[in-house]
Amino acid sequence: MSQKTYGIDFGTSTIKVYKKGEGIILLEKNVVATIDSGKKAVAIGEKAYEMFEKVPPSIHVSFPLSHGVIADMQDMIAMWNFMLPNLGGHRKLKGGEFYLSVPADITEVEKQAYSRIIAEGEYKPKRIFLIDKPVADAYGLGLDVEKTNGVLIVNIGADTTEISVISLGGVVVTKLLPYGGNWFDNQIMNYVRKEYNFVIGRRTAETVKQSLVSAEPSDVNVKVTGRDIVKGLPGVIELSSQEIYPIVKDIFQVISSSVRSMLERTPPEISREINHDGLYLTGASSWISGIDKLISGETNIKTNTTKDAQKTVAKGLGYLAEHPKLAAAYVSHLK
């Protein structure tokens, strides 16, 4: 097998790339700034994110992945072309093999769209393999997916929460909820505008989320810089976790109730092992304080957390890339 083998997690918030034999070599925000009607990328990742809400009309900044599906294929391909030199080093990246993670609970057409990002890029791949994200997640957690009789994984990402049950190497049931870290950002921006006549940007809302959002009541304050709508001038306000909690608590309840509902749909023999080992919490937004306790309280099952939860899918793809015979059992599509 070619040594130019990669595992790629096209996450809504961050793209993670694993290179065979080297580990995770790239983490970039999934943001792209383009010109020429979206055909050419001028910046990606953090640089593009810094340009958001600041650029002239000639430059378009987009978030091309939304709620687990490709929202703008042209921008995704432009981003991929821009990234290629970082993957291939000084040599052009040709003939590589790619393992891509895809949400299990989307349509076959939406899954196939992920392979188009690579296939329609500037350098043609040798082969593209699509792996269901829950399977990659499980391998990234170090679980013995082939032998286990029941694993429940809750992946809280930027735009979605994917709840999946895996048994003996296959996805038994899965559900994709349209809630993640970005939802909290939007709620914070809307709340500040409505209650304070004050406008803050997406980056500021993300900082507020990291400081104040919790699945349980807390007592934290943070000062926020933005623009006063009435005065039309820059200003500063102070927000507290006590006022943010009421606008986000319902979604935490939706997530925990959905986990419980998933368990109710799971066959008894599988549920028994999940009850013994506990469920696993991963994803870029699983860091939120108290979410593990809330889910445990709702299900009466231990909730296992992990370090580097944002990277578990990429690590799992990397493990499968290093073990191609094992990976062959999980390929849902082959191009």
* Poorly predicted tracts of residues: none
- Report how far the terminal alpha carbons are from each other: 16 Å
If strands are numbered along the chain, what order do they take across the biggest sheet?
Answer: 3-2-1-9-10-19
Shape designation: flat
The SS-based structural class is: alpha+beta
Give the amount of beta strand, in percent. Answer: 25-35%
Roughly what is the average pLDDT, rounded to an integer? Answer: 91
DSSP summary: helix tally: 11
The SSE order reads: EEEEEHEEEHEHEHEEEHEHEEHHEHEHHE
Helix content: 25-40%
For the biggest sheet, the summary is: 6 strands, mixed
Could you give a quick summary of the protein structure above?
This protein is α+β, with helices and mostly antiparallel strands and 335 residues long. Helix content is 39%, strand content 29%.
Detail the topology: elements first, then pairings.
Layout: E1 5-10, E2 14-19, E3 23-29, E4 32-35, E5 40-44, H1 45-51, E6 60-62, E7 65-66, E8 69-70, H2 73-88, E9 97-102, H3 108-119, E10 127-132, H4 133-140, E11 151-156, E12 161-167, E13 170-177, H5 181-196, E14 198-199, H6 202-212, E15 221-228, E16 233-240, H7 241-265, H8 268-277, E17 279-282, H9 291-299, E18 303-304, H10 312-322, H11 324-327, E19 331-334
Parallel strand pairs: 1-9, 9-10, 11-17, 17-18
Antiparallel strand pairs: 1-2, 2-3, 4-5, 4-6, 7-8, 10-19, 11-12, 12-13, 14-15, 15-16
Helix pairs in contact: 2-3, 4-10, 5-6, 7-9
